[in-house]
Amino acid sequence: MTKISPRNNFTVVVLLPIVWVMLSTALALSLSLYLIFNSGKFKEKGVIYSVYAAKPLVLGDSTSSIGSSDSRSSSLNQLMEAYDCPLAGFGDKFVSEAEKNGIPYWFVAAISFQESNCGRKIPSDSYNAWGYGIYGGKVHKFDSWEDGIATVSLALKKYYFDQGLNEPCEIMKKYTPPSNGSWCDGIEFFKDKILNFKTPL
């Protein structure tokens, strides 16, 4: 067993803590002086941080709106212009009716692409780009494109989404029963076109 001499004991018990305190104090003092003398440099470089970077939301305040600046309506308009659709320019109507009825904004537009080549192939003077109420010799006519968008959006909500049918292939069975699956494939195709449309630079 090794004996600790009084001299080693003094070094371990007294001197080591004193040296540790002195080094810690010197380090803290150096760091404090550095921060004090260099604090202006941080401000000059714009490195200023704030605990509250964003203002809190106010109850009852809205942070979104639907209008011509809505990117969804703008994308719809540009996509329809690219395909030379008569429905180009009605992006706001598609989006506002979808919002009002709680359905995806792309759905009614995708149906128009699938059913009538986005309004290019419709019964004369019908404004019916959706194949809505068209069977046999019967043709449902709308007063305008806006009327058609509003009516079809409401019908999708009332007769499909409110009944738990919200996928294209589920809706197809009721909307166009004779389809062999090509209708829902077409809706999915145009959904992807709408959602992934990139504005040309």
From TrEMBL:
<feature type="transmembrane region" description="Helical">
    <location>
        <begin position="12"/>
        <end position="37"/>
    </location>
</feature>
<protein>
    <recommendedName>
        <fullName>Mannosyl-glycoprotein endo-beta-N-acetylglucosamidase-like domain-containing protein</fullName>
    </recommendedName>
</protein>
<keyword id="KW-1133">Transmembrane helix</keyword>
<keyword id="KW-0472">Membrane</keyword>
<keyword id="KW-0812">Transmembrane</keyword>
